[in-house]
Fold this sequence. Notes:
Blueprint: E1 2-9, H1 13-26, E2 31-35, H2 40-46, H3 52-60, E3 63-68, H4 85-94, E4 98-104, H5 117-120, E5 124-130, E6 140-144, E7 150-154, H6 160-175, E8 180-185, H7 191-204, E9 211-216, H8 217-226, E10 233-236, H9 238-251, E11 259-263, E12 269-273, H10 290-302, H11 307-322, H12 336-346
Parallel strand pairs: 1-2, 1-3, 3-12, 5-10, 8-9, 8-10
Antiparallel strand pairs: 4-5, 4-11, 6-7, 11-12
Helix pairs in contact: 1-10, 1-12, 6-7, 8-9, 10-11, 11-12
Amino acid sequence: MTLIALLAGDGIGPEVVAEARRVLDACGVDATYEVAVVGGAAYRAAGHPLPPETVDLAKRADAILFGAVGDPEFDALERASRPEQAILGLRRELGLFANLRPAMLFEGLEDASALKPDIARAIDLVIVRELTGDVYFGDKGRRTTDDGLREGYDEMRYDEREIERIARVGFDTAMKRGRKLCSVDKANVLETSQLWRDVVIEVSADYPDVDLTHLYVDNAAMQLVRAPGQFDVIVTGNLFGDILSDQASMCAGSIGMLPSASLDGSGKGMYEPIHGSAPDSAGQGKANPCAAILSAALMLRHSLGQAEVADRIDAAVAGAIRGGARTGDLSGTLSTTAMGDAVLAAL
């Protein structure tokens, strides 16, 4: 029996995960579910954002459906104890090095995009973001300079093996789509980025059918706003990918519409909406559950081998949006549960 771990986390996480679970049940997905605490909820219950029991469940599960972590109540804690460390810990423990973040504009959301409708309609891309390297995992700390000044430092680093494996995910993703891959770096300034570009070019020899281009990250950010339709697949590092994927979400209408998949390269993955915990909206029934529902579809497609069911869910979300279903982030009035009802009705 397939085991799915439900790690709802903090803020609006439990609300949106509940709606995703309702959709999975309505589709007849044959699985058992186990629940564990994570993030701020875990710190309250166990004194740590990622307790051993949660790690054990994550390792046993065939896939993980994740909500969100983050709670301002814990902002004063040491960094290692803050809720957000749970995500980094799970990526490290499970070897989840590849993050897929699709971004497309659903029909009917043209006015919700920050872009002109004719430009926004062209958005249909996937950002492939490396997850276990870069400044988020490099050596970091604070020190005092010789002049007595406080100084913070974060090391940006990648080795060639890390770059090669994420590059291959990017190329493989492009092969399944439009066979266009744009590698984003800052090779004109950063030595880490120069190695990134060198290795991506080397890997490209194994993918002669993929059109490879390169952009500096500042130019890529500009092009995402100017002409997002030029992109098919973008592959980039942890820091740049974090920023560009959030930018892409607003180009596509709302951060509440974008799912993500974090993969280990062998089929196991953690699936989560990219919108974060939104603590100011928690418990008010205002959250958009579509990103969580679409994350469940990614889970079915990438980890559980149920692509047809995933297609049904994607189509149901599109149908609900096309039919006028809107939560507050999309200038609508539907509650979280009512939006879930609209997706269920469209199945």
